[in-house]
Amino acid sequence: MEGSYKVRNLLNSRKAPPKDSLKDMRGSDDMIKWLRLLDHSVEDLDGLNIIHVAGTKGKGSTCAFAESFLKVHGKVTGHPRKTGLYTSPHIKTIRERIRINFEPISEELFTKRFFEVWDRLPKYPTDALDVPRYLQFLALLSFHVFIEEKVDVAIYETHMGGEYDATNVVKRPIVTGVTTIGMDHVRLLGPSIEDIAWHKAGIFKPGSLAFSALQEPAVAAVLQRRAAEKEVALKFVDIDSRLPTNARALKPGVQRTNCSLALALVGAFLREMAPKEYSSLTSHDIFHGIDQFLWPGRFHSISHENYQWCIDGAHNELSMQQAAQWFAEIASEAQRYLIASNLQYQVNNSSNSSPLARILIFAHFSDRDRTALLKCVARSLQDSGIRAQHVIFSTYDERQDGVVRIGMAQRHILGTEHRLILTSDKNLQNRFSLEVQERYAEIWRTIDPDAEISLERTIEGALNLARRIGDRGNGMQTLVTGSLHLVSGALSLLEPNTSDSSHRVSV
């Protein structure tokens, strides 16, 4: 475990303060030079047979669907035998970002490959060569892992943009895809949605096929223009008619869009790379690929007796709208089921059936427009016919006893001195603000004066309060949203045994 502590500490030492513009923090500038120091070339990356995906919403889900289809197809045909998947951010452990056959690489493999990369790269910047920042380093590490582990296909999600993204060092992907584009990371990619689309289309490469989800006209025009400039054939993908109608993984309508794009990407990949007899997905591949699909923290539902948790890491307005619509569908369905299942009990006890409590747990502390996000989730719930009678504003701190996950702490190793401190991750330095929580409460009171509003200091406190509210009646349905940091903590508390997040330390 000591090696993993050192890895986390070294990685966090590469987190740089945000710059004023994306041009000042271009992720791809020195990637080729760093790759050469690792004895890798751009041609080696071509050998990974890359599927490259950019977009605003649904990148991770699209990549996970694509991996699921390829894995199912490979089990039957042997093409491919080994898949690689690189995504960000992670929910519980950083190893989730680099997966082989969908499993996060082991702690031992992560540590081994990390130091193979770390020891060969510069420790200090010079006029001739910079040092890789956090995401650049992780991209380099993923390339190194996938090359050394000899994957047959590597599916890459861009970090944020596309044109200047560290993953865009890839020159000859097999196929590229763009998910739904909306207004996010406006300070770096904007100010307009056309500017954002320009960046996303930067992954298009001459000689590679390109697909996009259906876009609004202004975005589609930019993508088409960029594709023409790069002499790329771009195809817009509508909902695939082969999708099953009742698959739970496709319950959120947006997942049908993401899954359809994934099918187009995988279909193009197989036609290009697989033997002719295995160059298309079968109905079996599609059904089982969807059935085994899993993407934690996105449209993630957990049911326990009369408690239902709907968890989604939405943190921009487009994602908030989709999360609220999904919650409305799940809540209505669960309400009908629970009323039916309790009907005989209610009759036998001569008591009146009361509806399930609807609860929102929300936290967001980034430099985005927090007020706009909160108003968006309120408006989207109302538009979906859902009222949250109880609203709980939480923080990013997980446990009431102050104990944190190993993955949320860092061990500084200085010779023989070991000291455990709270994470130095810049994204988690702003974990709590009573002022922000109180402002959220004021805003919500103007939206719904009759809502019961609570402020909780920890995620655990918020979850416990939701349970107590549910215990007053027949149960509850709770939407947990606003930040991937909130979702990470909630999942670690609600599903403590699904990863190594159960290892904890006191600080």
Characterization of the model:
- This protein is α/β, with parallel strands linked by helices and 507 residues long.
- The protein is 41% helix and 16% strand.
- It contains 16 helices and 18 strands.
- It has helices at 2-12, 31-37, 42-46, 59-77, 107-118, 134-148, 186-189, 193-200, 217-229, 253-273, 283-291, 317-348, 370-383, 434-447, 459-471, 484-494, and strands at 50-54, 83-86, 98-100, 103-104, 153-157, 175-178, 209-213, 234-237, 300-304, 307-312, 357-362, 390-393, 404-405, 409-414, 417-422, 452-455, 476-481, 504-505.
- The chain has an 8-stranded mixed β-sheet, sandwiched between helices.
- A hairpin with a 2-residue loop joins strand 14 (409-414) and strand 15 (417-422).
- Helix 4 packs across helix 10 and helix 13 (370-383) runs parallel beside helix 14 (434-447).
- The longest helix has 32 residues, at 317-348.
- Mean pLDDT is 87; it is low at 344-348, 409-428 and 500-507.
Mean pLDDT: 87
Which word captures the global form? globular
Between the first and last Cα atoms, what is the distance in angstroms?
A: 17 Å
Biggest beta sheet attributes = 8 strands, mixed
Please give the count of helices: 16
What is the helical fraction, as a range of percent?
A: 40-55%
Q: Which secondary-structure class do the elements indicate?
A: alpha/beta
